[in-house]
Structures are given as C-alpha cells and as structure tokens.
Amino acid sequence: MSLQALTYLIVGLTFAIYIGIAIWSRAGSTSDFYVAGGGVHPVLNGMATGADWMSAASFISMAGLIANMGYGGSLFLMGWTGGYVLLAMLLAPYLRKFGKFTVPQFVGDRFYSKGASTVAVICLLSASLTYIIGQMTGVGVAFSRFLGVSNATGIFIGMGIVFMYAVFGGMKGITYTQVAQYCVLILAYTIPAIFISMHLTGNPVPQLGLGSDLAGTSVPLLTKLDQVVTDLGFAQYTTSVRGNLLNQFVYTVSLMIGTAGLPHVIVRFFTVPKVKDARASAGWALVFIGILYTTAPAVAAMAKMNLLSTINPGIVTGADITAADAQIRYEDRPDWMKRWEVTGLLKFTDKNGDGRIQYYNDKSTDPKFAAAGWQGSELNVNADIMVLANPEIAMLPNWVIALVAAGGLAAALSTAAGLLLAISSAISHDLLKDMWMPDLSEKGELMAGKIAMACSICVAGYLGLNPPGFAAGTVAIAFGLAASSLFPCLMMGIFSKTMNKEGAIAGMLAGLGVTMLYVFAHKGVFFIKGTEFLGLFGGEANFFFGIEPNAFGTIGAIVNFAVAFAVKNMTTPVPDHIAHMVEDVRIPRGSKAVDGAH
Predict the structure, then answer these.
(1) If pLDDT is split at 50, 70 and 90, which confidence band does 575 have?
(2) Do 97 and 153 fall within a single domain?
C-alpha cells in the first residue's frame, strides 16, 4: 500500500475513533460540559492531561527546536515538565478543594469581585487565543504534508473534527477523546524513536541510545554530533545556551510558571472526584508526559545527525570541508526533501551556482567556507519538520510515517480542544451566566456553552489562517502571558490571606500589560526604530538585559507580585470571611466546595 493511502487509512481510523467517542460521551448537563461531571478516574485524567498538554509544540516543534539549539533547547524540557511539579504541589489540590468550574470563577469568588473575574477572563483569553494559533498552524502543517491538501484545507478539516467532539461532548467528550489521542501520539512518537535509535546506535531504548556509541564505532553519538556541527561553523551541540545565561534562566522559569497558570491545564483537575485525586492526576500526568519528554532529546540529536548525514555525507564520515563529496548535488537529493519542499518548510537556494546543497553557519568567520567557494547557507529547514520528517529521513516503513502523521494531528487537536473549552467556558459561564444573565437556566447555559464553543472554533480557525505577527511561529508567548497574569494571582489567592481585590486586579493588569508591551515593542507596534521615543530603549532587540520577549513572563510575574502587594498595602483589608475561606482552601481534605462561613 502506498504511503498516501496508508496515511489516509490510519488518520481516518483515528478520526473515526474520536467521533465515536464523542457520540458515546455527549454532555447532558453543564457539569458534564465544564468538568466531565467531576467523575474522571485519576489515571485516565492523567492520560487526558498528558494529551491536553502535549500539543503540536511538544510533538512537532520541541525536538526540532532542541535539534537546532542543542543544549539551549533543554529549557523547554525543564520548563514544561517543571511546571507540572508546581501545579501538583501548589495549585491543583487547592483549586479542586475550592470546587468551582473555571479559573475566573475562583478568582472572582476568592477576591470577592466580579471585576477581578473579568480581568481574569481577559488574561485567560489573551493566553489561550495566543496558544491556539500554534495548534491550528500545526494542524495545517501536518495535513498539508501528509494528506496532500493545502494548509487552509487542513485547518478547516481540523476545525470540523474538533467541532464534532468538543461542541457535543464538552469536557466529557474532550476527556475521553484525549485518552485515545494520548495513545495515538505516544505510539507515534516512541516507535520511530526506537527504530532510529536501533539503527544509529544499536540500542532500542532512545533515552539510552543518546549516550551510546554510533553503531560500528567507538565514538559516542553526541561526541560525533559535536564534531560535525562545529565543523560546519555552529556552536557545540552539548554546551550551547539560548542567548545569555540570564535569558536561559528566566525563559525556563517563564515556561514553568506559565505551565502552572494555563487555564486549560488547571481545569483538568476540576474533573476528578476528590482532592487527593487531583494530586494523583498530576502525578500520573507527569509519568505520561515524561515518556515523551525523555525521548525528545534523543529524537532531536538523532534527527540532527540524520539530516547532516544526508546533506554532508563526507563531513560525517570524516572528509575535509572542501571535499567534493561533502555535499550532495541538488539533483541527487532524496525523495523526502522533494516531498517537504512542496510544503515550503524546506527551501533550497543555489547561491553559488554549483548545483550542490551547502548547509552551514554562514555567520561563521572561518575562512574555510569562503575557500570552498561557499557563498552562504543554501538550505532552510523549518524546525517544525524535524519530527515529522525524521522517519522519512531514516527510511522507515510507510506505516511508521503514517502513524507519525496521525500522532501530530492528535497532539494538535487534543490541545486545541482543551483551549477551546477554556475559552468557551470563560464566555458562557464566567461572563454570560455569572455576570450578564445570572437567572439563565442550566439548559440555557449548556446551549450557550455549545454556541460559544462553536464560535471559538471559528475564531481559532481564522487565527490559524491569519496569525498575528506578534504570536506567529511561537507558543512561548502564551506561557509568558499566563505566567505574568494568572499564576501570581492564583498563588496569592491560595497562600495569602491578606491579598485583597484591589491588589489582585492591579497585579494582573500590570503583569499582563508589561509583558505585552515588551512583546509588541519588538514587533514595532508601539516603538519604531529610529524615532525619538524609542531612544528610551535604543531601538535594540532584547533591550532588557538581553531577555527575549518569549522569556519575559518571569519579569511580568515579578511586576505582578510587586504591584499587587504595593496596592494591597494602600487599600482596604480583606473581609474576615474571605480570610477564613483561604484557610479552608489550604487544608486539602474532602471535595466539598468551601465558603469560609465558620
């Protein structure tokens, strides 16, 4: 069977499973729609959380980023997994103890203010809408390459599939669909990794293969990779950092606290029966997530080695940089390159007219590149294709390549569904029911939730087709927005009996505002290089101590905490019943909602 036919078969089968689960698990109440009735088993919830969390960024992009960045890419591993430790220890059990449906509802009740809830909704929408852009883009990439359709058509198909199980099933449908999606994506990620590790190192366990010798040699894989990338003018793979060390640190922290503050992740812990189940769910989620995240560094290094071996076989086997066989002729490029060129994610420009593909660091000052007649790196490889193309580069069986396509789509669709539920819940429950129409019946609220979900899917599709410049190409900004706005507010809401509504509102607005200001400043929205006004910052990129916009969430969180406590000290103290409620929340026993009345 051809690759195209096999891909259609496997992807179609997974879609049929998702739709079947949606029909089986239709939401019949607002509790089903928002929190799956609160009866999900911790193991299943951990698996669903893993799928909810392991988005297109984790499945498709992360290993590619690590392959390009080397050691510096470890910040994604540490940040995204470390955030779950924070979530399990500091947030999940306490929020489950509170017994509400959504994050804005907790904020509104804890800070005794509909204004605080409204600001929380704004923060939630800012982070979630930014994050969903990457998921819809990932759907388009996977569809366009593997199903032979346009990027736009792929996004429309993805919208239709999510509509089927998210609108009708709500959290109940999404939860059980995500369990199936986790099984698909983890198999799709680990099976190719096992094949490739066995081929390159003879070790079938990718995590061990990363530290093993190349097959038939006594040279460790990472040692050889370091040699090859430095020969091509790049930084050493095993020691490079992202920017400077401060940037590496704050970037990691931003991803950690952003993970703990993302609403679509937090709401998963409202779906279990008891408080202890919330903590257990977080533990199981770490196990399920850890399988992929410990495999990713091996996938990244092996994908990098396979790519360089394809383009520069002479260098990999030890030939000099000027050797004729150090590059391949464009006409001899392998079929996988031809297939990926069609997507526009792999591009070749013959700058010196020699008909060969030169792939090296053209910012290097090493004279050997000029001596070889090279006039600039001629191959542009998008990081997003490294995982999806890796099985093709390694010439694995067609069924493995098709499985990877299904896994990439499962990862993108599962996270998109979780984000869409968080967005629609904020609109139908936190705005419509709690603020604008408090007398709305349960049946009316359920219908409003489904309409809000349908509208959210349309908005997400539009953003996927027309991503705004400030968020295009990255999901890290979404973590920065959550880190700077929601995480500090939740922490203060749980652990500070004295934090009042004025402090919480001011803190959220300050954290979100300063982070967005820094992001937009780099995109020329507020500051245009060359104007007198930008003289304050010198018009330079990363003007604040070399920190990237994607990493600025940590600074925004610090601003949030500082402003909140400053405003709190200048305003009215917290009412006594709220202080009692905080004490109740911090004793994670039982699952009954608290009200502070004692």
Answers:
(1) very high
(2) yes
User: Collapsing DSSP states into helix, strand and coil, what is residue 401?
Assistant: helix
Cα–Cα distance between 58 and 205 in angstroms, integer?
Answer: 20
Give the whole-angstrom CA distance, residue 61 versus residue 63.
6
Q: Name the residue among 197, 190, 189, 191 with its Cα closest to residue 305.
A: 197
- Which residue has tokens 């099976």? 191
Whichever domain contains 150, its CATH number is 1.20.1730.10
Residue 353 CB contacts under 8 Å (≥ 6 apart), including other chains? none
Q: What is the pLDDT of residues 336-366, one digit of tens each?
A: 888 888 777 788 899 988 888 888 888 888 8
* Phi, psi (degrees; rounded to nearest 5) at 220: -60, 145
Burial 113-138 (b: 16+ CB within 10 A, else e): beebbbbbbbbbbbbbbbbbbbbbbb
Distance between CA 229 and CA 241 in Å, rounded?
15
CA nearest neighbour of 468 among 516, 425, 515, 426: 516
Has residue 521 been placed in a domain? no
Residue 380 bridge partners (DSSP): 347
Report how far residue 595's alpha carbon sits from residue 598's, in angstroms, rounded to the nearest whole number.
9
In a domain, 95, yes or no: yes
Model confidence at 371: pLDDT above 90:
no
The two beta strands, 346-348 and 379-381, are: antiparallel
**Cβ proximity of 445 and 93 under 8 Å:** no
Question: Quick check: 329 and 313 in contact, CB under 8 A?
Answer: no
Q: SS3 for 346?
A: strand
Q: Are 593 and 99 in contact (CB under 8 A)?
A: yes
Residue 399 shares a structural domain with residue 346: no
- 509 exposure class (CB count in 10 Å sphere: 0-12, 13-18, 19+): middle
Domain that holds residue 347: 312-383
- State whether 85 and 123 are in the same domain: yes
Output the pLDDT for position 370.
Answer: 84
* Torsion angle (degrees, nearest 10) of CA 420, 425, 426, 427: 90
Place of tokens 């464009």: 330
SS3 content of the chain, % helix, strand, coil (to 5): 70, 0, 25
Give the count of beta carbons closer than 10 Å to the beta carbon of residue 395: 13
Strand partners, 356: 329
Do residues 593 and 98 lie in contact, with contact meaning Cβ atoms separated by under 8 Å? yes
Nearest to 271 by CA among 81, 485, 47, 107: 47
Total-model pTM? 0.81
Annotate 100-115 with three-state secondary structure. Answer: CCCHHHHHHHHCCCHH
